[in-house]
Amino acid sequence: MNTGRDEPGEVAVAADNIGTDRVTDTAKGERALGSRAPEFIKARRLLHVSWQVGVFVVGLAVVVAGIIMLPLPGPGWVVIFGGMAIWATEFVWAQLVLRWTKRKVTEAAQRALDPKVRRRNIILTVIGLVIIGVLCGIYLWQFGFVMPWSIKDQ
């Protein structure tokens, strides 16, 4: 937990940098790990802890709202990642989770743009649509196309 002190001994290092050349986060274009609270809040321990509690409660409310939206209509995953972003303004663990998630999403996007993968996905989609079409055709041939209501009676 960040206590609000800016002494040289308090440095957070991401776990994925172990065993590699230690490059600073700002050199890679990423922000440094740690609290992003204003300096006057970091300077006072009680104020900083209450700030962290507030950020945690707000982030928790947003994440819970996102979880509720998963089975209900709404952008559930977007809201959950929004809550994680709120937590990432104050907590190192959330910053690491968001960095990992961004890296995985970027890798997936690059794989999806690969021509071989794209061709495979198109072929599988066409095969799936053909199978669905054949099944619908068999159903209509077997049972016919009958409306569940009578239009003449209305």
Let me know the largest β-sheet. Answer: none
SSE order: HHHHH
Average per-residue pLDDT, rounded, comes to 78
Number of helical elements: 5
Proportion of residues in extended strands: under 5%
In helices, the fraction of residues equals 55-70%
Structural class: mainly alpha
- Rounded to an integer, what's the Rg over CA atoms? 26 Å
* Low-confidence runs of at least 5 consecutive residues: 8-27
Give the distance, in angstroms, between the N- and C-terminal Cα atoms. 70 Å
Number of strands: 0
Per the principal axes of the C-alpha atoms, what is the gross shape?
A: elongated
Describe the model.
- This protein is mostly helical and 154 residues long.
- It is built from five helices and no strands.
- The chain has helices at 39-42, 45-69, 76-88, 92-112, 115-143.
- It is elongated and about 75 Å long.
List keywords for this structure.
154 residues; mainly alpha; 5 helices; 0% strand; elongated
Characterize this entry briefly:
The radius of gyration is 26 Å and the shape is elongated. By secondary structure, it is mostly helical. Helix content is 60%, strand content 0%.
